[in-house]
Amino acid sequence: MSKTIQCVVVCLVLCVSLAFSQGLSPPSNVTAMDTPNDDGSSVTIKWDAAPEDSGISGYQILRRIAGGGLEEIGEMLPAGATSYVDATIEKGNAYAYIVRAVSDAEATVDSNETAPAKGTGEWFHTGKIPLFIAMLLFGAVIVWNIYYARSGKEVFVRRIPGLEAVDEAIGRATEMGRSILYSLGLGRVDEVPTIASMTILGQVARRTADYETPLRVPCRDPIVMNVVREVVRTAYLDEGRPDVYNEENVFFVTESQFAYAAGVDGIMIREKPAAIFLQGQFFAESLILAETGNSIGAIQIAGTDSEHQLPFFIAACDYTLIGEELYAASAYLSREPMLLGSLRGQDWGKVLIFITMILGVVLELSGVNWITTLLQRVN
Amino acid sequence: MRRQVPLVLCFFFGVTIILTRFSPHPFSQSFYEEVNSWALIIFPFAFVLATVTLIRSHVTRIRRRSEHWQYSFIVFAGLIAMVVIGVPFGPQHPVFEWLFNNIQVPMDATMFSLLAFFIASAAYRAFRARTFEATLLLVTAIIVMIGNVPIGDLIWSETSSVKQWILNNPNLSARRGIILGVSLGVISQSIRIILGIERSYLGGGD
């Protein structure tokens, strides 16, 4: 027994002396704490950086669950590491950590064991405070402008040719006795461009109901199709023309992107609609649709928020709603004061951002970079 | 009441989902995921309804002998073949895979390839130098196109640099301007919907 103890002591002395002979010192100021702004699924371990000539070639993290043994976690960390996020914890358990410094010669030295730490989920992400404030500020500006417009004060809205042409396009189709084709693109029902497109469709449907012009809406998404049916049906009801509404004119084509393009192109070629609306979210099929529409001589009004597809629409369509104009359409077409007020608020937001950008550039050029730092932190 | 219920639900879920983006707590995250999963429950029902409308519209086309009505039989043949093979045997079945890889994929690729011709015809119209703006567009397009091919640098060694400058400065600035406007438009539209001011998506403006 005494021989065994002697052997252990000798080994320990040898290990310690080897460590010191390599100039290896244990990692200092090791702390373990709940990772801030997460859902409680990790603990962050931090320690001081070792001097360059410390001889440390890497770190190994060890952890101990209360009452249990030590276990190695993760891969060996590089010599310059000063922190580690343990994302393999079980919620509710407390863990203590040891940071083991390892030298090139495989000598090791352990830090002191940290106090046990638990992962806790935070209710509010403090890193997002500036974003939250900006959101509240922008929301308040819009709401204030909505109520400003509601008080009866006139709101100026610049002319948007693409929306001015809606009546012209519907009138043309009516005079020619042809249909109107309305595509909402490939967007799902939970995407804002699709919802914006539905609002335009609602306004278009009201006019086609008055003129008794057939309105054909091929859909790519089944849920969008069902919502669109409701939008068109209600528009016809509101105009007092439920008899003109034909449910079969709002139909599902396919979920596949290019099959949808082929299907809609086929409808264009066969039915030769006099007016085509391409409003919503479009991808590579945008030009396939717009060029086919152009080839049949239809008046085309397009609108998308995808800046990659805008050049195609501008080249191939008669009118294009560029980016934000798509979202202004509902207010522009209905002229409802509250909707117009929100447009005014949107412009105020742009002014605020513009001022921030100019201020940021001026301050950055003057060597003051707190705006840049703040924006980087938010990012 | 028919309008109020969707508006109240829209306000409640709109505000709650926004707040979950600021709260990493497991409760708010699981709430977010739960609500998102509801959309997955709705989808199959909507899909069945959509397939019924597809079948109905093609039956109508055949019955009325509309132009090119014969192609509707191909739709039914494809639909039946994929359902008969895909539903009992799954999408990993060799026949299903063969049909997908040898029919649908090439047809998709064919449609995508058409884009090259459509780009040429659209570019021809857009680049006709009838106005100052169109001329500017034409000159810029030529520089960017030549800068993208190896011969560009053989003609003039700085072609790639000029092309890159055009893409990095005027092009990127314009794109970011559009993105900025779009982002504000999205926020504004979302606020209008959440507050129930924008109701057109429910069918009417009242």
CATH architecture of the largest domain in chain A: 3-Layer(aba) Sandwich
Which consecutive residue ranges of chain A, at least 5 long each, have pLDDT under 50?
A: none
Q: Major sheet of chain B, described briefly?
A: none
Provide a count of the helices of chain B: 7
SSE-based structural type of chain B? mainly alpha
Textual characterization of the structure:
The complex is a heterodimer of chains A (379) and B (206). Chain A has helices at 2-21, 129-150, 161-176, 192-211, 222-238, 257-271, 286-295, 310-316, 325-334, 337-365, 370-378, and strands at residues 31-34, 43-46, 56-65, 70-78, 83-86, 94-103, 108-110, 117-118, 180-185, 215-219, 250-252, 275-281, 299-304, 319-322. With 379 residues, chain A is α/β, with parallel strands linked by helices. Chain A has three domains: 23-118, Sandwich (Immunoglobulin-like), CATH 2.60.40; 126-142 and 339-378, no CATH class; 155-335, 3-Layer(aba) Sandwich (Rossmann fold). Chain A has a six-stranded parallel beta sheet, sandwiched between helices. Chain A is elongated and about 110 Å long. The mean pLDDT of chain A is 89. Chain B has helices spanning 4-20, 26-64, 71-89, 94-126, 132-147, 150-155, 159-194. Helices cover 81% and strands 0% of the residues of chain B. Chain B is an all-alpha fold and 206 residues long. In chain B, α5 packs across α7. The longest helix of chain B is centred in the N-terminal third of the chain and has 39 residues, at 26-64. Chain B has a domain at 127-206. Chain B is built from seven helices and no strands. The model of chain B has no long low-confidence stretch (mean pLDDT 89). The radius of gyration of chain B is 26 Å and the shape is extended. Chains A and B meet through α2, α4, α5, α6 and α7 of A and α2, α4 and α7 of B.
